[in-house]
Design a protein that fits this description.
about 170 residues; single chain; mainly alpha
Length: about 170
């Protein structure tokens, strides 16, 4: 029997990620090399653009599964589930809205502050999930690791472009 609840929990975070990716249209790559992200300075350790889509798909799917495990362990949307699933929704909203701040509006410094808030929210969510089901750490830890990397990348890009008017 198909577990539609689990599938939905795994797909939902991706839908927001895909919607956020629409705000990147024309900002990351263009045929003539003049897209905003192509023209700003980036550190030598900046990953190739193609890495981000598969990485975020795997991370969104994993965190969605972790949220499902919490939902299942708590017996649905019960009083025990309120805090961890609210933290999940809050950090997910911060995650989804970082993309337009950075790519659409070119606010690198504001995006860094946004990312720091996301880091704190994701850590709180992970800790809350862990208290319900310790196995959720297997799905949330890679996300926290990637967020740490993304925060460092955002910081480096901000440092390299502080004097540039975007």
């Amino acid at each position: 029997m198909v577990n539609w609840g689990m599938i939905g929990a795994m797909v939902l975070p991706n839908i927001g990620g895909w919607a956020g990716a629409l705000t990147m249209t024309g900002e990351v790559k263009s045929p003539d090399g003049t897209a905003w992200y192509e023209t700003i300075k980036k550190p030598s350790w900046n990953p190739p653009n193609w890495v981000f889509g598969p990485a975020w798909t795997a991370l969104y799917t994993g965190m969605g599964y972790a949220s499902y495990k919490v939902y299942e362990e708590c017996g649905g949307f019960t009083s025990d589930a309120v805090l961890p699933l609210t933290l999940f929704g809050g950090q997910l909203l911060l995650n989804w809205t970082w993309t337009p701040v950075f790519f659409k509006f070119h606010q690198i410094g504001l995006a860094l502050l946004h990312m720091l808030a996301l880091d704190a929210a994701a850590a709180a969510c992970t800790a809350s999930f862990f208290t319900v089901n310790k196995n959720t750490l297997y799905f949330m830890a890679p996300y926290l690791g990637w967020l740490t990397f993304a925060t460092c990348l955002n910081f480096a890009i901000w440092q390299l472009n502080k004097e540039t008017k975007n």
